[in-house]
Amino acid sequence: MIAMASKAYPAATVVSADWRDFLALTKPRVLTLVVFTGLCGLLVAPQSIHPVLGFTAVLCIALGAGAAGALNQWYEADLDTMMARTANRPLPAGRMDRQTALHFGVGLGSFSVLLMGLALNVLAAAILAVSILFYVVVYTVWLKRRTPQNIVIGGAAGAFPALIGWAAATGRVDMLPVLLFALVFLWTPPHFWALALFINSDYARAGVPMMPAVVGQRATRIQVLLYTVPMAIAAVAPWAMGLTGAIYGIGASLLSGIFLLLSAQVGFSRESDPAKMKPERRLFAFSILYLFVIFGLLVADKVLLA
Amino acid sequence: MTFTPEEQTEIRRRQKSRALVTALILGGLVILFYGISIAKML
After folding, report:
1. What is the DSSP string of A4-33?
2. pLDDT band at A8 (very low <50, low <70, confident <90, very high)
3. Is the ipTM of this structure higher than 0.90?
4. Checking CA distances to A72, which of A129, A135, A242, A291 falls within 20 to 30 Å?
5. What's the pTM value of the predicted model, to 2 decimals?
6. A59 and chain B in contact, CB less than 8 A
């Protein structure tokens, strides 16, 4: 499998990579959400930790996610050359050789887990290690090119940071971080499939079996709607179970209601021209805002109602 | 492998910037490890 993927990567670079290329390898834009949810998981935990240790925990989460991103780009160099969105990444553009990316990813990942284990606790380090391996092995190597369910199961990788943040602060895993994990896990399919609906052609050209290309737009729209319902339940559950206060509860209910409404618009739309897919673009944009605001509300709820 | 003068200049520039960033990261880690040591003692 690895040998197969290594066949089609661009010729070795002549000039050594710039430090910005190493930064690009970590997918900094994806890191924003990872760091934010990890920080929120840390802040809503019932036990507070020293700010330096809190910073270290968030740094480890960011480094671990960056390592996973680097290893993802190492493995998918051939795929990235075929998509306009990814063609300018360091490997497909020929600014870095694959071995450097592999060494960087393995080194960064090992360092982040080791530092988390030594500075915080073994449980947080173990979950961090599982999240990196899950993203690289389960999502990137195993599922992404094989099944349209790739991002459903792969979405778990993005759901770990809140759990890690909580575990770093408390040394255990409780019901609230598990619900936050479920929320991000169930949020991922409607978020990515909304995007896949209007950039379908790019994924199809690269041969990635994204849901719209395999089962068609109609079935994808229904799946978007079907995943939004349990996602909304997972979002409101912490309040219903008495784990958060009214600030989070009311906010999460309102936001989830809007999410459901936008998903319904996508679910019942029959538009097939990507250029005219406004509900899909609206849902994709709102889904990013949704996750940021809902985690922000969780922290506001804890701080204001403390 | 031989490089043109332009390529050599570019290689030197990149090596210099990478060395500088590596030094900054190592300096940051020294401060971080010191901070962690103090925080763990409290």
Report:
1. HHHTTPPPPPSSPPPHHHHHHHT-HHHHHH
2. very low
3. no
4. A291
5. 0.90
6. yes
